[in-house]
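Lecture notes, unit on protein representations.

Consider one protein chain, 406 amino acids long.
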Amino acid sequence: MKSVRYTKFTGEDFGLSAEDLMRALSDFFLNSGFDDPYMQFNEMNENSLEDLKRAIEEALLRGDFMDPEKAQQIQEALENMTGEQIEQMLDRMVQKLADEGYINTDPQSGGMGEGGETKVEVKITDKSVDFLGFKTLKDLLGSLGRANFGAHDTRDLSTGVESSGAAKPYEFGDTLNLDVAQTLFSAMQREGVTLPLNLEYEDLHVHQSEYQSSCATVIMLDCSHSMILYGEDRFTPAKKVALALAHLIRTHYPGDSLKCVLFHDSAEELRLEDLARVQVGPYYTNTREGLILAQRLLARERKDMKQIIMITDGKPSALTLDDGRIYKNAFGLDPLVISRTLEEVSRCKRQGILINTFMLASDYGLVQFVQKVTAMCKGKAYFTRPEQLGQYLLMDYMNRKTRTIH
């Protein structure tokens, strides 16, 4: 793949690092199409080099990088720079992102610009996806005053290194985390205080620790067009939460797994690496197809717990028929669509799959449907604003497991 080299601006670059730039540009890279809700559908957003440079310039003017005093200094410096100097500075910052592995630039994939020049497409790397997930997770949990996590705790007890329960007689297969005091006390009870003290098999006692379960999760993201309509971007916060959840699992719950399913007119699995670039799609909400695919993905996992996290702002309004055609009805609760969708909810229940739903709207049809889902699967339903979604979802993920394995 060819790379693009940029001219070096030798003047003031404001001391900004690549990480500073990524923090300020997170919304740009996670754009879901909200800026142009009537655009022609394109599954992945395509950011050009010029788009990126303009986004950096706007961030500098807004002062997104630093404290108000330094922001004011940068704005004054920009006013005293010529247009050529500003362009050179932006080139330098773009090159810094490329050099540190946050973006790739490919002039071959961008096509031709309006003036006939080669259009350079900018793509974020896996390093960027990981950084954006970490940033979102830190922001969300920092606002909750929560910093340290462990594995998922349940009410069941098991033997382990970290003790948190009473000692128990040793059984074959237990971790030999010996409770010396209880073991000696058991022998003394049988033989008295004598030396040497004979230990029998039944004297052995081990510490207990809280049983730490593993969990397989499929996050179902509604990417129907309503997620960016009605004056509110609901899809970008949903993407951020999914990235944060992926980072949380990778760094704190390595025994867990996370898959992502997009559902709209139909449904498809999405690689987490591509999550940052995905945009809203067609108009309808085929919840049933999303549930079918989620069950298929969970069937491959061998985990103690299996769950579906569904983020949506609309009731089911589409259905894939047996012959492959998509039946659509956006008006009210269509009996055919609802009944077939609830059949899949029932299958989830029989397989022990929990469904938790995070509603980004409160219209009557959606609430009524979600009430049925939660009643059938004994899951939870949350009505939340986009800006609160991350706090609800992450706290639920970390705390809810204590009530699901029995």
